[in-house]
Protein backbone atom coordinates (compact mmCIF):
# COMPACT_ATOMS: atom_id res chain seq x y z
CA UNK A 1 0.00 0.00 0.00
CA UNK A 2 1.45 3.31 -1.08
CA UNK A 3 -0.28 6.01 0.92
CA UNK A 4 0.65 9.13 2.83
CA UNK A 5 2.82 8.14 5.76
CA UNK A 6 3.34 10.13 8.93
CA UNK A 7 7.04 10.24 9.59
CA UNK A 8 9.04 11.93 12.31
CA UNK A 9 11.97 14.22 11.66
CA UNK A 10 14.75 15.48 13.89
CA UNK A 11 15.46 18.82 12.28
CA UNK A 12 18.39 21.17 12.83
CA UNK A 13 16.38 24.38 13.18
CA UNK A 14 12.78 23.47 14.14
CA UNK A 15 13.18 20.66 16.67
CA UNK A 16 11.28 17.40 16.37
CA UNK A 17 8.70 17.71 13.59
CA UNK A 18 6.04 15.66 11.84
CA UNK A 19 6.73 15.14 8.15
CA UNK A 20 4.68 13.36 5.52
CA UNK A 21 6.48 10.66 3.59
CA UNK A 22 5.73 7.89 1.10
CA UNK A 23 6.52 4.19 0.85
CA UNK A 24 6.12 1.28 3.19
CA UNK A 25 7.96 -0.49 5.94
CA UNK A 26 11.63 -0.83 5.15
CA UNK A 27 11.71 1.88 2.48
CA UNK A 28 10.27 5.33 2.97
CA UNK A 29 11.07 8.43 0.89
CA UNK A 30 10.68 12.20 1.50
CA UNK A 31 7.70 12.66 -0.78
CA UNK A 32 4.54 14.35 0.49
CA UNK A 33 1.47 13.43 -1.54
CA UNK A 34 -0.76 15.50 0.75
CA UNK A 35 1.01 18.60 -0.60
CA UNK A 36 1.15 18.13 -4.34
CA UNK A 37 3.99 15.62 -4.16
CA UNK A 38 6.55 18.00 -2.59
CA UNK A 39 9.71 15.93 -2.51
CA UNK A 40 13.19 16.32 -1.11
CA UNK A 41 16.42 14.81 -2.45
CA UNK A 42 20.14 14.73 -1.66
CA UNK A 43 22.61 16.39 -4.06
CA UNK A 44 25.47 15.11 -1.90
CA UNK A 45 27.79 17.90 -3.07
CA UNK A 46 26.68 17.98 -6.71
CA UNK A 47 25.62 21.25 -8.32
CA UNK A 48 23.29 19.81 -10.95
CA UNK A 49 20.88 16.96 -11.43
CA UNK A 50 17.82 15.83 -9.53
CA UNK A 51 19.65 14.53 -6.47
CA UNK A 52 19.32 11.05 -5.02
CA UNK A 53 16.19 10.13 -3.10
CA UNK A 54 16.54 10.01 0.66
CA UNK A 55 15.43 6.64 1.96
CA UNK A 56 14.78 5.45 5.48
CA UNK A 57 13.75 2.17 7.05
CA UNK A 58 11.74 3.26 10.08
CA UNK A 59 10.36 6.65 8.95
CA UNK A 60 12.27 8.44 11.71
CA UNK A 61 14.61 10.86 9.93
CA UNK A 62 17.75 12.77 10.84
CA UNK A 63 19.52 13.22 14.16
CA UNK A 64 19.09 16.99 14.49
CA UNK A 65 22.70 17.64 13.47
CA UNK A 66 24.74 18.01 10.31
CA UNK A 67 26.34 14.60 11.01
CA UNK A 68 23.32 12.87 9.52
CA UNK A 69 22.80 14.01 5.89
CA UNK A 70 19.07 13.40 6.30
CA UNK A 71 18.80 16.21 8.86
CA UNK A 72 18.97 18.93 6.19
CA UNK A 73 16.42 16.90 4.24
CA UNK A 74 14.08 17.03 7.25
CA UNK A 75 14.39 20.82 7.55
CA UNK A 76 13.82 21.35 3.81
CA UNK A 77 10.89 18.94 3.68
CA UNK A 78 9.33 20.51 6.77
CA UNK A 79 9.88 24.05 5.49
CA UNK A 80 8.29 23.28 2.14
CA UNK A 81 5.29 21.78 3.96
CA UNK A 82 4.97 24.87 6.17
CA UNK A 83 5.18 27.09 3.08
CA UNK A 84 2.53 25.01 1.32
CA UNK A 85 0.19 25.21 4.34
CA UNK A 86 0.72 28.96 4.68
CA UNK A 87 -0.24 29.75 1.09
CA UNK A 88 -3.19 27.37 1.22
CA UNK A 89 -4.60 28.28 4.62
CA UNK A 90 -3.86 32.01 4.66
CA UNK A 91 -4.16 32.94 0.98
CA UNK A 92 -6.20 30.10 -0.53
CA UNK A 93 -3.39 29.31 -2.97
CA UNK A 94 -2.71 25.67 -3.90
CA UNK A 95 1.05 25.39 -4.15
CA UNK A 96 3.67 27.83 -5.37
CA UNK A 97 2.19 28.15 -8.87
CA UNK A 98 -1.40 27.90 -7.62
CA UNK A 99 -1.94 24.72 -9.66
CA UNK A 100 -1.72 22.17 -6.84
CA UNK A 101 1.69 20.92 -7.91
CA UNK A 102 4.45 20.33 -5.39
CA UNK A 103 8.08 21.37 -5.77
CA UNK A 104 11.43 19.60 -5.59
CA UNK A 105 13.81 20.53 -2.77
CA UNK A 106 17.47 19.55 -3.15
CA UNK A 107 19.86 19.74 -0.20
CA UNK A 108 23.67 19.54 0.16
CA UNK A 109 24.35 21.62 -2.96
CA UNK A 110 28.07 22.13 -3.66
CA UNK A 111 30.78 22.72 -1.08
CA UNK A 112 30.70 25.47 1.58
CA UNK A 113 27.96 27.10 -0.50
CA UNK A 114 26.34 29.79 1.67
CA UNK A 115 23.24 30.41 -0.39
CA UNK A 116 20.00 28.82 -1.53
CA UNK A 117 18.03 29.53 -4.67
CA UNK A 118 14.77 28.89 -6.45
CA UNK A 119 14.74 27.96 -10.14
CA UNK A 120 11.49 28.37 -12.09
CA UNK A 121 12.62 26.08 -14.89
CA UNK A 122 12.92 22.99 -12.69
CA UNK A 123 10.32 24.21 -10.18
CA UNK A 124 12.94 23.39 -7.61
CA UNK A 125 14.99 24.85 -4.80
CA UNK A 126 18.64 24.10 -4.04
CA UNK A 127 20.27 24.56 -0.64
CA UNK A 128 23.95 24.94 0.16
CA UNK A 129 25.37 23.67 3.44
CA UNK A 130 26.45 27.16 4.52
CA UNK A 131 29.22 28.15 6.85
CA UNK A 132 31.85 25.37 7.11
CA UNK A 133 29.32 22.98 5.61
CA UNK A 134 27.63 22.95 9.03
CA UNK A 135 24.81 25.51 8.74
CA UNK A 136 22.65 24.42 5.81
CA UNK A 137 20.39 27.18 4.51
CA UNK A 138 17.33 25.11 5.31
CA UNK A 139 15.70 27.20 8.06
CA UNK A 140 11.97 27.78 7.53
CA UNK A 141 12.30 31.47 6.66
CA UNK A 142 14.93 30.76 4.00
CA UNK A 143 12.76 28.03 2.47
CA UNK A 144 9.76 30.34 2.46
CA UNK A 145 11.82 33.19 0.98
CA UNK A 146 13.11 31.06 -1.89
CA UNK A 147 9.81 29.34 -2.66
CA UNK A 148 8.06 32.72 -2.62
CA UNK A 149 10.24 33.71 -5.58
CA UNK A 150 8.18 31.07 -7.42
CA UNK A 151 4.95 32.70 -6.24
CA UNK A 152 6.16 36.09 -7.49
CA UNK A 153 7.24 34.58 -10.84
CA UNK A 154 3.80 33.08 -11.41
CA UNK A 155 1.92 36.26 -10.38
CA UNK A 156 3.25 39.84 -10.68
CA UNK A 157 6.54 38.55 -12.14
CA UNK A 158 8.43 41.58 -10.80
CA UNK A 159 11.61 42.10 -12.84
CA UNK A 160 14.65 41.20 -10.70
CA UNK A 161 16.48 44.52 -11.00
CA UNK A 162 15.83 48.15 -10.11
CA UNK A 163 12.91 49.03 -7.83
CA UNK A 164 10.78 46.10 -9.05
CA UNK A 165 13.67 43.83 -8.03
CA UNK A 166 13.65 45.30 -4.53
CA UNK A 167 9.90 44.64 -4.36
CA UNK A 168 10.50 41.08 -5.59
CA UNK A 169 13.06 40.50 -2.81
CA UNK A 170 10.83 42.16 -0.20
CA UNK A 171 7.90 39.95 -1.23
CA UNK A 172 10.06 36.92 -0.40
CA UNK A 173 11.09 38.38 2.98
CA UNK A 174 7.50 39.40 3.80
CA UNK A 175 6.10 35.94 3.13
CA UNK A 176 9.10 34.38 4.89
CA UNK A 177 7.92 36.22 8.01
CA UNK A 178 4.33 35.16 7.23
CA UNK A 179 5.29 31.49 7.02
CA UNK A 180 7.37 31.70 10.20
CA UNK A 181 4.48 33.23 12.16
CA UNK A 182 2.02 30.71 10.71
CA UNK A 183 4.32 27.77 11.56
CA UNK A 184 4.59 29.16 15.10
CA UNK A 185 7.30 26.72 16.18
CA UNK A 186 8.63 26.97 19.75
CA UNK A 187 12.03 26.02 18.36
CA UNK A 188 11.95 28.81 15.77
CA UNK A 189 10.42 31.87 17.39
CA UNK A 190 8.38 33.82 14.81
CA UNK A 191 10.17 37.09 14.13
CA UNK A 192 10.76 39.92 11.67
CA UNK A 193 14.35 38.88 11.09
CA UNK A 194 15.51 36.99 8.00
CA UNK A 195 17.96 34.12 8.33
CA UNK A 196 18.48 34.41 12.09
CA UNK A 197 19.01 30.66 12.39
CA UNK A 198 21.65 30.00 9.76
CA UNK A 199 24.44 32.26 11.08
CA UNK A 200 25.55 32.87 7.53
CA UNK A 201 28.52 35.09 8.45
CA UNK A 202 29.49 33.28 11.63
CA UNK A 203 28.78 36.36 13.79
CA UNK A 204 25.43 35.19 15.16
CA UNK A 205 23.56 37.97 13.35
CA UNK A 206 20.60 37.61 11.01
CA UNK A 207 20.88 38.27 7.31
CA UNK A 208 18.27 41.06 7.35
CA UNK A 209 16.17 43.13 9.78
CA UNK A 210 12.67 44.26 8.83
CA UNK A 211 12.20 46.79 11.67
CA UNK A 212 15.28 48.79 10.70
CA UNK A 213 16.81 47.31 7.54
CA UNK A 214 19.95 49.50 7.69
CA UNK A 215 21.09 47.51 10.73
CA UNK A 216 22.70 45.09 8.25
CA UNK A 217 24.98 47.94 7.12
CA UNK A 218 23.64 48.02 3.56
CA UNK A 219 19.87 47.96 3.27
CA UNK A 220 17.73 51.04 2.79
CA UNK A 221 15.29 52.13 5.50
CA UNK A 222 13.65 54.76 3.27
CA UNK A 223 13.02 55.34 -0.39
CA UNK A 224 15.36 57.78 -2.14
CA UNK A 225 16.15 58.49 -5.79
CA UNK A 226 18.96 55.92 -5.68
CA UNK A 227 16.68 53.05 -4.66
CA UNK A 228 16.69 51.57 -8.16
CA UNK A 229 20.49 51.48 -8.30
CA UNK A 230 21.34 49.37 -5.24
CA UNK A 231 21.33 45.57 -4.94
CA UNK A 232 17.80 44.17 -4.85
CA UNK A 233 18.55 42.58 -1.43
CA UNK A 234 19.09 46.12 -0.10
CA UNK A 235 16.38 48.11 -1.91
CA UNK A 236 14.01 45.48 -0.47
CA UNK A 237 14.60 47.21 2.87
CA UNK A 238 12.09 49.96 2.01
CA UNK A 239 9.20 47.50 1.60
CA UNK A 240 10.37 45.28 4.46
CA UNK A 241 10.37 48.35 6.69
CA UNK A 242 6.91 49.36 5.38
CA UNK A 243 5.65 45.86 6.21
CA UNK A 244 7.04 45.97 9.74
CA UNK A 245 5.54 49.41 10.42
CA UNK A 246 2.19 48.26 9.01
CA UNK A 247 2.17 45.01 11.02
CA UNK A 248 3.72 46.09 14.31
CA UNK A 249 4.09 49.89 14.37
CA UNK A 250 6.95 52.28 15.00
CA UNK A 251 9.35 52.81 17.89
CA UNK A 252 10.32 50.25 20.51
CA UNK A 253 8.30 47.06 20.23
CA UNK A 254 8.49 43.56 21.59
CA UNK A 255 7.00 40.57 19.76
CA UNK A 256 7.44 37.01 21.09
CA UNK A 257 10.27 38.21 23.30
CA UNK A 258 12.21 39.78 20.41
CA UNK A 259 12.99 43.51 20.73
CA UNK A 260 12.61 45.84 17.78
CA UNK A 261 13.04 49.56 17.24
CA UNK A 262 11.51 50.85 14.04
CA UNK A 263 12.12 54.46 13.02
CA UNK A 264 10.05 56.62 10.64
CA UNK A 265 11.41 59.17 8.18
CA UNK A 266 8.76 61.76 9.00
CA UNK A 267 8.83 61.26 12.76
CA UNK A 268 5.30 59.81 12.72
CA UNK A 269 4.26 57.40 15.44
CA UNK A 270 2.45 54.40 13.99
CA UNK A 271 0.37 51.58 15.44
CA UNK A 272 0.39 48.30 13.53
CA UNK A 273 -2.68 46.48 12.18
CA UNK A 274 -1.15 43.03 12.79
CA UNK A 275 0.62 40.66 10.43
CA UNK A 276 -2.58 38.74 9.60
CA UNK A 277 -4.07 41.78 7.87
CA UNK A 278 -0.78 43.15 6.51
CA UNK A 279 0.11 39.90 4.71
CA UNK A 280 -3.36 39.71 3.14
CA UNK A 281 -2.96 43.23 1.80
CA UNK A 282 0.48 42.41 0.34
CA UNK A 283 -0.72 39.16 -1.25
CA UNK A 284 -3.75 40.82 -2.84
CA UNK A 285 -1.59 43.68 -4.14
CA UNK A 286 0.99 41.22 -5.52
CA UNK A 287 -1.48 38.96 -7.24
CA UNK A 288 -4.04 41.49 -8.48
CA UNK A 289 -2.31 44.86 -8.85
CA UNK A 290 1.45 44.56 -9.33
CA UNK A 291 3.07 43.85 -12.69
CA UNK A 292 6.62 43.15 -13.85
CA UNK A 293 7.54 46.85 -13.84
CA UNK A 294 5.87 47.95 -10.60
CA UNK A 295 8.07 50.45 -8.73
CA UNK A 296 7.75 51.84 -5.20
CA UNK A 297 5.22 54.54 -6.12
CA UNK A 298 3.14 51.87 -7.89
CA UNK A 299 3.47 49.54 -4.88
CA UNK A 300 1.96 52.22 -2.67
CA UNK A 301 -1.03 52.50 -5.03
CA UNK A 302 -1.30 48.70 -5.34
CA UNK A 303 -1.46 48.15 -1.59
CA UNK A 304 -3.86 51.06 -1.04
CA UNK A 305 -6.16 49.52 -3.66
CA UNK A 306 -5.84 46.09 -2.05
CA UNK A 307 -6.56 47.48 1.43
CA UNK A 308 -9.52 49.45 0.06
CA UNK A 309 -10.93 46.27 -1.54
CA UNK A 310 -10.45 44.28 1.67
CA UNK A 311 -11.36 46.82 4.35
CA UNK A 312 -12.83 49.94 2.69
CA UNK A 313 -11.43 53.30 1.60
CA UNK A 314 -12.03 54.98 4.95
CA UNK A 315 -10.89 52.02 7.04
CA UNK A 316 -8.16 52.20 9.66
CA UNK A 317 -6.33 49.54 7.65
CA UNK A 318 -6.18 51.62 4.46
CA UNK A 319 -5.07 54.68 6.41
CA UNK A 320 -2.37 52.59 8.08
CA UNK A 321 -1.09 51.48 4.67
CA UNK A 322 -0.81 55.10 3.53
CA UNK A 323 0.88 56.20 6.75
CA UNK A 324 3.41 53.32 6.66
CA UNK A 325 4.44 54.15 3.08
CA UNK A 326 4.77 57.83 3.94
CA UNK A 327 6.94 56.83 6.91
CA UNK A 328 9.39 55.08 4.55
CA UNK A 329 9.37 58.11 2.22
CA UNK A 330 7.10 56.64 -0.45
CA UNK A 331 4.64 59.51 -0.70
CA UNK A 332 1.23 59.55 -2.34
N1 LIG B 1 19.27 33.40 -2.10
C1 LIG B 1 19.22 34.46 -3.05
C2 LIG B 1 17.82 35.05 -3.07
O1 LIG B 1 16.85 34.35 -3.05
C3 LIG B 1 19.56 33.99 -4.41
C4 LIG B 1 19.55 35.16 -5.31
O2 LIG B 1 20.39 36.04 -5.20
N2 LIG B 1 18.58 35.24 -6.18
O3 LIG B 1 17.69 36.22 -3.12
ZN1 LIG C 1 15.57 36.22 -2.79
From TrEMBL:
The alphabetical list of record keywords is: Hydrolase, Metal-binding, Metalloprotease, Protease, Secreted, Signal, Zinc
- Active-site residues, record numbering mapped to chain: 146, 233
Q: Which residues of the full protein are shown?
A: 196 to 527 of 527
Cofactor(s) for this protein? Answer: Zn(2+)
Q: Please note every region of biased composition (Polar residues).
A: 15-24
Using the record's annotation, list all stretches that form the Peptidase M4 domain: 7-153
**Which protein are we looking at?**
Neutral metalloproteinase
Q: Name one GO biological process term.
A: proteolysis
Q: Specify the species.
A: Streptomyces cacaoi
Is the Cell cycle keyword given for this protein?
A: no
Q: Which family does it belong to?
A: Belongs to the peptidase M4 family.
Gene Ontology CC: one annotated term: extracellular region
Region ranges (Disordered) = 15-67
Say which domain of life the source belongs to: Bacteria
Q: What is its EC number?
A: 3.4.24.-
- In this chain the Peptidase M4 C-terminal domain maps to 156-330
Amino acid sequence: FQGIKEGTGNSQYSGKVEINTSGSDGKYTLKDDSRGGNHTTNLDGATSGEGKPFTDEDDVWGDGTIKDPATAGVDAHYGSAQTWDYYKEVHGREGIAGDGKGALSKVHYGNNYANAFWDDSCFCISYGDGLENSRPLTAVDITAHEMSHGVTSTTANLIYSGESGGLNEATSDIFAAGVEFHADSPEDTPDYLVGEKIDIRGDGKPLRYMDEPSKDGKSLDYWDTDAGNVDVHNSSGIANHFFFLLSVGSGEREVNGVQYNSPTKDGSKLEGIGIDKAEKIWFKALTEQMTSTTDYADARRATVTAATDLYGADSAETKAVEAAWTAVNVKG
